[in-house]
Automatic annotation (TrEMBL):
It comes from the Bacteria. The lineage of its organism: Bacteria, Bacillati, Actinomycetota, Actinomycetes, Streptosporangiales. It holds the Pfam family AbiJ_NTD3. Residues 17-76 form the AbiJ-NTD3 domain. InterPro entries: AbiJ-NTD3. This is AbiJ-NTD3 domain-containing protein.
Amino acid sequence: MDTSGKENSEEDQRARLSERLDAFQAGDTRFGLFLEGMASPHTLAAEPRQRRVVAFINAQLDTIGVELRDVGYPVFGSFQLPMP
């Protein structure tokens, strides 16, 4: 609910979160580091939870040709995928 008592749609919540994080204005490197941090062992201690978060993030990133990959247990890095 927002401050007026109205329920917010999930889409509205995502848009507000993106605005607050400046996700659309962030450079590629900064945004990649943000995503890597979301799957970091410092953020998520349980490796199965990290993998679930990475799978969710990768499903969203698929459309822009980027993915998080396991680069050393349990650390994930962002990579640009080759264009078909």
